[in-house]
Amino acid sequence: MNALALTDDIARHFGRARESYEQAARLQRLVAAKALSLLTPTAGLLLDLGSGPGWFHPKLKQHCSELIALDLSHDMLQKTRAAQQAVLVVQADAQSLPVASESIDKVFSSLMLQWCEQPGLVLQEINRVLKPSGSAVISTLLEGTLQEFKQAWSQVDQHQHINQFLPLGFYQQLERQYPHLGLQLQTETVQLEYQDVLALARELKDLGANTVTQGRNNALTGKQRWQKVQQAYPSRCIDGQISASYQVLYLTLTKQHSES
């Protein structure tokens, strides 16, 4: 699948999830709250990059004077417009921001970066649009996310059912490669419980996050196959529920003053 087709596919998946997203977004709420705690509340213009349906905007508006929402999904942005929290709503790709250089005071982006083909380019774009001394807080998922689900599926077939997330080392390399970005990295493991593997799969679907960006599996997943996945799942809670782990990375970026 080429980059343009993949981008369109991701936009459609998240667009179809616009009505169910907020109710299912347990992980998103936890991670967004942690990311927000890293964002300094100051006056100015804030860009929410990958805003989704705008459910977090009331809290974001406490950290800025004005808010711009940008997302890849037209359907998600319809919900954002209806909320009337953002002064401007823009449909665009984070890898090519239609935003003037050095025009934004702060950027907030929670759990969007992992869906981008070139995350390094996104960080460069964020740095471009920030004013000198402006800052950004970005969260993303790392390799090891949903490892239990992946392990269970590996006992059933050889198809890829879980998206491949980048390792921490990739971002550590970006930190060394682009010192002018002033990147700082912080990791966290988030554990969530589910009644069974079907409940986990339904939540991923309701979030629009069931897109597999590489090695897509076109095989059907019938009842018997799900039962096998449940039996092979490696982690059980005392009450019989299953536990899924998410490896989260928080990046903070500070725009440096250009040398005269």
What does this structure look like?
The structure is a single chain. With 260 residues, the chain is of the alpha/beta class. The chain has helices at 3-16, 21-24, 26-37, 57-60, 74-83, 119-129, 147-154, 168-177, 197-206, 223-232; strands at residues 45-49, 66-71, 88-91, 104-110, 130-141, 184-194, 242-254. Strands 3-2-1-4-5-7-6 form a seven-stranded mixed β-sheet, with helices on both faces. Helix 7 packs across helix 10. The longest helix has 14 residues, at 3-16. It is globular and about 55 Å long. The termini are far apart.
Bulk shape:
globular
Whole-angstrom Rg: 19 Å
Main pleated-sheet profile: 7 strands, mixed
> How many separate helices?
10
Total strand count, please?
A: 7
Poorly predicted residue ranges: 1-6, 13-23, 210-220
Helix and strand composition category? alpha/beta
Determine the CATH topology of one domain. Rossmann fold
Calculate the terminal CA-CA distance, rounded to whole Å: 44 Å
**CATH architectural name of one domain:** 3-Layer(aba) Sandwich
Helix content: 25-40%
User: Roughly what is the average pLDDT, rounded to an integer?
Assistant: 84
The SSE string, one letter per element, is HHHEHEHEEHEHHEHHE
CATH class identity of one domain: Alpha Beta
How is the largest sheet built, in terms of strand order?
3-2-1-4-5-7-6
